[in-house]
Amino acid sequence: MGAFQTCEGERYWYNRPVLNYILRRLGQSIIVLLIVMLITFTLPYFEVNGILAPAYAVLGTHANPATVHVWGVQHGMFHPYLVRFWSYIDQVFIHFNLGHSYKQNLSVWQIISLYVPRTIWLALSSLILTVIIALPLGIYQASKRNSTVDYVATSTAFILYGIPAFLLGILMLQFFSFSWPRLPASPPSAVAPWAMFTNPLGFILPVATLTLLSIAFLSRFMRSAVLEVLVQDYIRTAKAKGCSNRRMLARHAIRNALGPIVIILGLYFPGLLGGAVVIEAVFNYSGLGIQIVTAASTLDVPTVLGITLLVAILTLLGNLIADVMLGIVNPRIRIQGNR
Q: Which residues pair with 101 in a beta bridge?
């Protein structure tokens, strides 16, 4: 079993300190998750027709005070607020039941399991490519600060960062689908989770579009982080001792600059799920983004609550992973039981 080495030379075995650290973060995450659930559960009360709004969407032309009342009784809508909220918590945490979509006549979990894998693969593929390209690019820009390469890369990043996602997607379609080399304009219509691997050509444009937008942001952030480290006293000391630029970057600057990058990456993946909404619309990609927009427009409240809860869990999980990785990447960050 490995050990964690602090800057003073003290050694802490991973089992107890890290376990306590993770348990504290899990406790904080559960509290935040409950707050998110409370807010999302309460929002439907402020709609037109309140929590009975889905009844009008489901019943359609048959909606009248009598039928709406019967529907509300059947689905427990007239129970006290706290009773309904406690029932919702019990369903989610005890029975792992995210509810039932009245509009689609499917369980919310069935809907999520159908559409979420496609969006996750899209976001995950984009994130991996972004890390592979953006981090070395940002490091290289910092090492060649104020050079021609730095100016060109910075200008390109600003242009990409300023272009709206839908416009970049349309431009990608115009140049690479409607013109040469005739790449598919959209992924296959099937919603199989492994469609990205069985027919990868259809995913080139949406993945590339989302990756370009992400590279523009992350490379600039990596460049700034490395430049901030390069002006520190210990870097000047390393230079004075004759440390080469390559060794200084590899052993000192990069590792210390990765701290804030790890935090950004931990929170950026859930953000990619939200950013994929526009990409899915442009490329006619049947994923989570299209589904949540459809659910919101048709007042499919259980589906909206389920997807919101899923995104909140992914965000908290990304934050937890980022906190733990920060302690591993940066030797100055202690993971101790008394913090």
A: 106
